[in-house]
Amino acid sequence: MAGTRAGSSLVRDAAGVAAIAAIGAAGYWLFPDNLALLTRVIAVALLALSLDLVVGYCGVATLGHATLFGAGAYAAGMACLRGVTEPMTLVLIGAAAGAAAGLVMGAVMLRAHGLAQLVLSIAIVQLAHEAANKASAFTGGSDGLAGFSPSPLFGTFAFDLWGRTAYLFGLALLVGVFVVLKFVVASPFGMLCRGIKEDPVRIRAMGAFVFPVLLKMFVISGAVAGTGGALAALSTQVVGLDSVSFELSANALVMLVLGGLGSLYGALVGTVVFMGFEHTVSAVNPFHWMTMVGALLIAVVLVAPGGLGGLAGRLRAAVRGAGGGRGRP
Amino acid sequence: MQTVFSIAIDAFAYGMALFIICIGLSLTMGLMRVVNLAHGAFAMIAGYIASYAQRELGAGYAAALLLAILGTVAVSIPLERFLYRRIYGSPQLTQVLMTIGITFCVIGITNFFFGPTLKTIALPASLSTPVDLGFRAVAGHRLFVMACGLVVAAGLWFLIERTAFGIRLRATVDNAGMADALGVRTQAVYAVSFAIAMGLAALGGVVGAEFLPIEPYYALRYMVTFLVVVSVGGAGSIPGALLACLVLGAIDTTGRYLMPDFGNFFFYAAVIAIVCVFPRGFLGRAQ
């Protein structure tokens, strides 16, 4: 019984991954002129996935996750300026920098709880922002890093002007990271994290150490966010202060809650919906955009407290409940 | 000596301006347990109303201030009734999401009506002239802000610790169900506290406009500062908020005077250090 259940969830996950790849490919064919935007969506989706690991699976709320994204972006940009131009290596450097930043951030943040934790995360991202602004010898200050060009991917696929290579590279990264995260989340370690989210006291009473588990998740999350940052740096070939800002952190949290916490699909759906909405509305005027996004947020809290994912689940349950009585023998 | 004195005056006045705005947030967060990120938005509404009243209606400073407070409270009442009441007791994340949404809406709507430029609130002659203290002249406005801060602190302390309303509020906070059963109209208590908090935000927004200028992204720009100040002080504690405002105001002002290049660096470094040592803030209570 357990075997078939594991087997069916594996099939479901494979279908989900295939769906992500298919939707990504469809985006490539449908919006050939907007590939830069779509690549940005993928980079931010990696940030949202990374945030989901910490918020959705561990229950640690943070408004400073862009620190990890920015660490990856700046590390990749700086390495590229200093002569390391192989894209895959740059992504690994970004992931490593994100993981290191995650280690530091987690070690500071996990000492506190509740509101103090939230405020610590904000202070960390503001401090990182200020540091990136001041260390202009390394980061270019408020001008940001520019003028670096990664070499062709695997020596053959150059980063072209339309962003085709960057987009497909990003999509491949996203699918790869997603598969890895599915395994992480389903592993005993992932289960332990969920347990900590539900009831840390009980987990502690069972003999597990909470702090190292959460710290480990922070490091994994940092690696994922760093990958996103490196992808953003490679695709736009610019790294600015906005990649390590409170606004990006808050937006990522909004996307995550919009899509539904504690589900990797929710993070992706939330990112696509939020950024699509933002892109559509911001064309009109910036204040109009703020009003619309604000109204969207209020509507989500009032109508779908579990996010769009929760709403879909409720609808599915309602349909199944209505259809189940007749359909089942 | 000259520098030390001017830093001290500026730091104290800035701390007091922060205090007037933040104490309302401290009340909503500590007593009503709502993480209200839209708090700055209400200070911003007040600033826009005051500036509008001065420019278009020709009102004086005092009249504009009064109008701003009344207007902001009037705006806050329906918001409390229809939006905030639904998130009392919700998870913090939900409250953050809803109140960021309200902030965005307020920014968008105020700028649609009042235009996206920096708003100035002209000071009356009595406040803009320096006052001679015998050994040194100090800007009258600074003294006015300090006086306002002290009056607000004393008044709130009296309201919460010494009046019947304060007793009801504290009872509602400690055990809403029991207070309800004992005949306290808890929803009314919450509504009144919320209105008081927003009135204080409005007062702080107008009085503190010299330090925190009223501009289109005011609500977002200072949201983090207000939240940080409250949690450093310990949510719900008036002396804690006072202490936090003075300490953080002093650190921020000193940093800006002595090392202007570093901006907010010292402010946030201090915040991390303080929160690591006092996870509940200076004088916060265990929850």
TrEMBL record, chain B:
Keywords: Amino-acid transport, Cell membrane, Membrane, Transmembrane, Transmembrane helix, Transport. Belongs to the binding-protein-dependent transport system permease family. LivHM subfamily. It is a multi-pass membrane protein. The lineage of its organism: Bacteria, Pseudomonadati, Pseudomonadota, Alphaproteobacteria, Hyphomicrobiales. This is Branched-chain amino acid ABC transporter permease. GO terms for molecular function: transmembrane transporter activity. It holds the Pfam family BPD_transp_2. GO terms for cellular component: plasma membrane. One of its GO terms (biological process) is amino acid transport. The chain crosses the membrane at residues 6-27, 34-53, 59-84, 96-118, 138-160, 188-212, 224-250, 262-283. InterPro entries: ABC_transp_permease, BCAA_transport_permease. It is found in: Cell membrane.
